[in-house]
Fold:
Amino acid sequence: MARINRRKFLQYSGAGMAGILAAHRAPVFAQANTVHILRWNDFVPAADKVLREVYAPEVQKALGIKLNVETINANDIPARATSAIQSGNGPDIIMLLNNYPHLYSSAAVDVSAVAEEVNKSGGGIYDSAKQLNHVGGKWVSMPWSMVPALIAYRKSWFDEVGAKEFPKTWQQYYEVGKKLKAAKHPIGQTLGNTFGDAPTFTYPLMWSFGGQEVDAKGKVVIESKETIESVRFMAQFWKDAHDEGGLAWDDSNNNRAFLSGDISASLNGASIYVAALNGKDKFKTEKGAPLHTDILHAPLPAGPKGQHGYHTAFNHMVMKYSKNAKGATEFLRWAHKKENYEKWFLVQKGFAVGPTREWEKHDMWKQDPVMQPFQTAPQLQKRLMGYAGQPNQKAAEAWNKFIVTVMYAQACSGKSKPEEAVKWAAGELGKIYTGA
Amino acid sequence: MTTENGRRRVSNPRASPFIRLAENERFLATALLAPGVIILVLFIAYPFVMAIWFSLTSIRVGDAGQFVGLANFAKAMDDTIFQQAFKNTVFYTFWATIFKLALGMWLALLLNRHFRFKRIVRASMLLPFIIPTVLSAFAWRWMFDPTFSVMNWALYHGGMITDRLPFLSSGEWAMWCAVLVNTWRGMPFFAITLLAGLQTISPDLHEAAALDGANAWHRFWHVTWPLLLPVTLVVVVFSVIQTFSDFQLIYVLTGGGPANSTHLIATYAYQIGVGSGLLGEGAALSLFMFPVLCLVVWLQLRYLKRMENA
Structure:
């Protein structure tokens, strides 16, 4: 073995230090290949556990990436993303809801290569997911999952009022709801300023009556007899069939109201059912049976102009400011591989579905027939916010101002007549779509 | 050390350079002021100037935008949600301040008396002020919950109502509930500050007034109130500033709903600036608070100056 004396050591180390200083960066072997991912606190806590306890060690072994998982409240993600982008410092990957990729597209790394691979291997990414993540001819983020919104309802109470199956149309739902409220089992629905359950109800309702925010050219067309009809219908439906406290609900009130037996039906992800399933001894029907045995799911009913649904999308954006964008992109490629994604998908038990059609064929769907309506729910999502235009920044502004939801809330609370509420919404949308 | 003509020398030529510098009043004043000035510039002036600049541009998240003049302000003026938020902010500030002042004064007068456990009561009264707003607002939200409100439960089981009260599900009710929570939270600040003012008033004045035949109301109106006015004015000004720019309470309690009926300027600016990524428009919205608060501060300074000259 060659001996290294003090003089040689100083010569070598001096040369090495000079190289590092000249390159303005640490040598490759010294750079920590760390990927910091920011996500929401998953409504299925086991899924966060998979990220921390399964993905982290496995991706370290497979790619040498040290995965740092940070989870926060979904409502706080825009604030974190804004500060990270403006300061050019923060997580390497940020999970973004719905059409936020359009808002932050200029701060994104192009992940088209990964998206094309997933699209090809997974039998096609859902069209709605593509619209949300494909901006300016490239994929600015990767669609990760969707949380379908379906109506959870109490089978026995629907039976008692003569509804042997879930109503197929809004009118039928109104008739059944009226009887349910008379029997002290109202329908529960939020019309509050909240990101999830309110817009995922109001947008499909408007579409199924033939209303829409804008036309394909971006001209505001919400002030139509179809929209007014939908608002008039909802105001009556609200009064006769709903728990009117829903005007002040956030995304969690309906879960509590349903689990406590105060409401008979509510649009939601599968979290009500999952909570009832996990709390068999805690949540019971009035007859003492476990509550989960009395819960079924159904899509929103059809209106005169078709049936629609809206499912909350979860996407991952690799940030341009990241010093390890390459590692972050590689992590996403690795996580989307079937054998890796499946570990996360299985613990969701159907609460969240995959971004491609392939996941509709998974054997997991055979385990619990109550969850089966979630299997193909993404197919009902034919439209996105800002329809018939793009789900772009203007659509996001309208969505974040809750304009469509407030339009219904104004009429349901009696604050405005349906025509006035629609006129107000048209005025507000006009300022967004015709502004700079 | 004295000089030949007997005058005291300012500096010692044999002292170290540091000592000589420290003895230089101009240098010392600058050095002592510097940390405060740096903090003010970094954390108040810089963000404020940036907010003004943002409000004049079309900046969005990740996009520096371009100069648009007063377009963001014009858009805000034409925005019905902002108009409602502005009215709400004025309503909320006015009524919350009135209630805080009235109840705070009443509480201060009570606490100024001698009774058992006076210190414990005074200390515990500060609890609403000490608890973080987010936590207390969550607790109130639960108490006003449309389905599980404990107040509805108590009133219903007490036979006082037959149907639930729409605490947060009616626009008017929700706004009054917000005023109530703000009053509950801010009242101790009024009470403690006014109590401190009350304790500076000499009991002799009250005794003299009583001997002259003044009843309790007269003693309050002609003795206590005039002497308490400077403190009252300062506390009202601070309260108006805090209430007018309130964010946390509404954000947690109602989120601005139902149907935008409780949106304040701050919550709406957050929704636009952070929620929608329109930083320029959000900055313009929040700057609408500035002239109002400026006016309040100007009134306060004017009054204090008059007091100094009196």
